[in-house]
Structure to design on (295 residues):
């Protein structure tokens, strides 16, 4: 209950941003917020609020699993730090690299394996799995 | 004069008593809401509606016990004839197994060589250091892995 108070601004914002399948649950002194955002901007907004309430995410009392909805065929920009994004044979960093997608290039999302991995096609026509965190859905 | 006054007040009390036997739905609603407030396990407040003394509860409870407790509290309110309990129970939080967390944490931290992540009983503990600008990205990916919690002990530069 206290946690819901602490993060009330965040859950209110999640509702205001129209996060779908929004679930707010408290279990063993951790608050779990799950849902699907309609845009990357909505997700970023929630993470900004989270960082304001709990600077540098130190408290260990919130797990916020909010992903951005994207249908297959959507485009995503490669937002790596500086290097190219590895395209792999399977969903896992232990999988062999079958291609690269340049930073700031655009890939086509084919299907989502899980919250971490997407099957994508690069502009060069290479197909393989890419790590979702480095893809910004457009 | 005095006797009239006494008679009047007796009548007034009696009429109030009679009225309270057939409680107004709005009064019942208020008293049910008041009773539900005492249930500390409730997350978002339950929605209470009343029609002819029949109370309908809608909303989400964290577990089955909480749902039963809400119904009992509602029944105990004055003037309630019966309770329709339409409350739903939230699905419990599913935490990934340590095995699957270990491999997904490895993927998430691969590009952060100065970060060490350990997994124990669903809890991800982060040590080492990181630039503040990279912290949100790392935390965002770890938050999608269904951990029980994330202990961030990183030195943020």
């Amino acid at each position: 209950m206290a946690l819901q108070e602490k993060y009330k601004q965040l859950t209110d914002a999640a509702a205001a941003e129209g996060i779908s399948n929004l679930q707010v649950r408290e279990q063993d002194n951790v608050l779990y917020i799950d849902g699907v955002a309609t845009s990357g901007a909505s997700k970023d907004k929630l993470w900004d609020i989270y960082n304001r309430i709990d600077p540098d995410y130190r408290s260990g009392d919130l797990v916020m699993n909010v992903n951005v909805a994207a249908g297959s065929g959507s485009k995503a920009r490669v937002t790596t730090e500086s290097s190219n994004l590895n395209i792999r044979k399977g969903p896992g960093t232990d999988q062999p690299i079958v291609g690269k997608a340049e930073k700031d290039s655009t890939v086509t999302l084919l299907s989502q394996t899980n919250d971490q991995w997407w099957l994508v096609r690069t502009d060069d026509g290479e197909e393989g799995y890419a790590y979702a965190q480095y893809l910004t859905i457009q | 004069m005095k006797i009239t006054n006494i008679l009047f007040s007796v009548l007034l009390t009696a009429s109030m008593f009679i009225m309270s036997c057939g409680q107004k739905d709005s009064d019942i609603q208020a008293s049910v809401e008041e009773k539900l407030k005492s249930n500390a396990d409730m997350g978002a407040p339950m929605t209470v509606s009343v029609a002819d003394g029949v109370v309908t509860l809608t909303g989400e409870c964290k577990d089955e016990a909480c749902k039963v407790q809400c119904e009992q509290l509602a029944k105990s309110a004055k003037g309630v004839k019966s309770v329709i309990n339409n409350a739903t129970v939230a699905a419990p939080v599913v935490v990934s197994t340590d095995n699957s967390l270990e491999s997904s944490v490895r993927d998430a931290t691969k590009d952060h060589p100065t970060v060490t992540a350990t997994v124990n009983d669903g809890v991800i503990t982060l040590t080492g250091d990181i630039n503040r600008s990279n912290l949100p990205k790392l935390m965002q990916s770890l938050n999608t892995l269904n951990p029980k919690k994330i202990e961030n002990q990183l030195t943020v530069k």
Q: What stands out?
A: Chain A touches chain B at residues 1, 4, 23-28, 30, 32, 43, 47, 51, 56-58, 60-61, 63-65, 67, 81, 92-94, 115-116, 131-133 (CB under 8 Å).
